[in-house]
Amino acid sequence: MELYQKIQRSRAKLVGRMAERRACLYRSNEFLVKLIAGLCDGQSVALVQGNAQLTTVEAARMLGVSRQFLIGQLEKGAIPFHMVGTHRRLYVQERAGLQDAAR
Description:
By secondary structure, the protein is of the alpha+beta class. It is built from five helices and five strands, in the order αββαβααββα. The longest helix is centred in the first third of the chain and has 15 residues, at 26-40.
């Protein structure tokens, strides 16, 4: 909690091997604040590459819903997906649709 409050009050700095310091960009600082706030609230946190593709099993696990529920949402058109052969894939960048469907 102390770390969260310090980052929230000031801009975080990155420190290199040779003790060189650089201030984090605003977006990086905002990311760190949200990350630590989520951890403090007891939420699960996952770092995933922005253009990553998820299987239905992976997406359901991240959202905390059953795979069957997720597939139902996909078939209703609530969440965008694409087919890779006979398998459904979801892009992580479509996270707004994923989060809305999990609620």
